[in-house]
Amino acid sequence: MSVRRLAEDHIQPQEFAFNADNKKWAKQTIAKYPKGRQQSAVIPLLMRAQEQDGWVTKAAIEHVADMLEMPYIRVLEVATFYTQFQLKPVGTKAHIQVCGTTPCMLRGSGDLIKVCKSKINEQPFETNEERTLSWEEVECLGACVNAPMVMVFKDTYEDLTPERFEEIIDEFEAGKDVRTGPQIDRQFAAPEGGHVTLTDVPARAQSARQPAKKADAKTSAPKPTAKEKAEEPGADVKKPSKTAKKAAAKADNEQMKEPLFEAPEGQKDDLKLISGVGPVLEGKLNDLGITTYAQVAKLTKKQIAEVDDRLSFKGRIERDDWKAQAKALAKGGAEEYRRVFGKDPR
Ligand code: FES
User: Fold this and answer.
1) What residue spans carry the region label Disordered (predicted)?
2) Which domain covers residue 320, as residue numbers?
């Protein structure tokens, strides 16, 4: 946790005032709280002050304290406690908060910090030369399941690799809209590649269509007798047993493990040199029969879709441009990779 102090006096502006819109908004916000509890508006007001000026100045803290009839020290305590408040000027296009707590640390936040140091500034809270970007390390931001992640203003960027993170920084610098949330094939915090439970779509769709009917049936309809149950249409159709279901799932799994390609003879290439491929993915690719750079370089669109499907990571092959990377590696190894991409293969 970083030490949080107000910025030096010489960069503190003398005064602060909300602009007309924010002043109106602040009055409405304070009015939401019961009489005598207006101080509860301290966090939203400080946040609005930060959004207006880019950081929380001493003058803004005092102004908010006056509005809420609070001692200055109480508002200062709030502003210095929460890391979402910036106490000195930060990058005008992005101030990046890198989560460095255990789950993110174990999943690579150290590499994200290295990217910040090389692309922005060696020191946290210092801007780049253009004053557009800055960074800091913070404690858990509550998206651990999609670690490693960063937060920029109010949005989070999750499931990051150093390569994708570099792109995100470039997109902020260029003023582009940056895709928020998970940066891989994952919806919110669902499993990568899609749901693995409750996948019985017809049953789910049916229950979604008939919620009221279901509730009524539960509360008012009498339970059928055993005789009535036996006479129901389809009662003699046997449901698949648990064992049969398990066997079917096992057969599906076995089928998914079957190779898609005939692995070429000879030595395997180190597919981990392709950015985006780690030891686990390399093993899975080998299981599919992909063992060389040349094979990756020649994948057709249809084959990419098949591999995507098998490995449940739709889009990653194209997003990380595995084909171009593999082509360079196949042509001249790490040297050619460096020539084409201007950096070492990892
Ligand atoms: S540990 Fe990084 S978001 Fe929780």
Assistant:
1) 204-264
2) 271-341
Q: Is 14 in the same domain as 66?
A: yes
Q: Which atom of ligand 1 is nearest to the CA of 148?
A: 2
Q: Is the pLDDT of residue 91 over 80?
A: yes
Looking at the structure, tell me whether residues 108 and 177 fall in a common domain: yes
The atom of ligand 1 lying closest to the CA of 109 is: 2
Tell me the pairing of strands 150-152 and 181-182: unpaired
With contact defined as beta carbons under 8 Å apart, do 40 and 33 qualify?
yes
Residue 241 within a domain = no
Distance from the CA of 102 to the center of ligand 1, in angstroms?
7
- Residue 149 Cα to ligand 1 middle (Å): 7
Distances in Å between the Cα of 169 and the Cα atoms of 9, 134, 176 are 31, 10, 10
- What one-letter code names the amino acid at 194? G
What residues line ligand 1, using a CB cutoff of 6 Å? 99, 101, 103-104, 140-144, 147, 149
Tens digits of per-residue pLDDT, 102-140? 999 999 999 999 999 999 999 999 999 999 999 999 999
124 Cα to the center of ligand 1, angstroms: 19
Strand 150-152's sheet: what is its strand order?
133-138, 94-99, 150-152, 155-158, 181-182
Structurally, how many domains does the chain consist of? Answer: 3
Give the model's confidence band at 210: pLDDT under 50 very low, under 70 low, under 90 confident, else very high: low
